[in-house]
Amino acid sequence: MVRTLSWIGLAFALLALARMGTVAPAQSQDKAPDAKKEDPVPSTPAPTKSEPSGVQEPAAKSSGGDDHAAALGNGMLTAPGAPADVDTVPSMFSPRTAADDQLATVGYRLRHLSAEQRASVYAEIGKPSSASHAQVPAAVGAQIPADLARGGLTPLPQAVTARFPELNGLTFAVLNGKLALIDPTMRIVVDVAAQ
Description:
Layout: H1 2-31, E1 72-73, E2 76-77, H2 95-102, H3 115-126, E3 133-134, H4 146-151, E4 154-155, H5 158-163, E5 171-175, E6 178-183, E7 188-192
């Protein structure tokens, strides 16, 4: 047991001496005026000229001659064969887009139907008027009461949905004397017959 304690004491003594040996030279280096200190953080290089943001590739630059037409004109693609009037054209340049902007969001799914096609849909569903009658505002975007949605709506006939598949899932009813197409899940009027 005495021998174990002496080895432990010796180990502590050696550790203390080793620490003193490493601390003393470090203190002398800090105090020496001629000693060079290494900077752990490298100095930043002189500022360089930054490149402008949004730099174009050299091949993308046009010479401005007549042989290089602009890719877009009035918000439309000008390449040969590009579609002329698409949904991406701003409404200030496209009457069709301007008309689409005036539609209520719920009526947007029927935007491509012409007035004649809508009239034929309403003529088909209004023949034997088995539709429910309700005193609800007949306006696109109007919400119908839950009790009408639960049991008072009539599904569109198969003949209509076969010709116009985008009408699948819609129902109809007579609201304030006007025939209306209704989305039963959202309980919202999608379109109203023009009378």
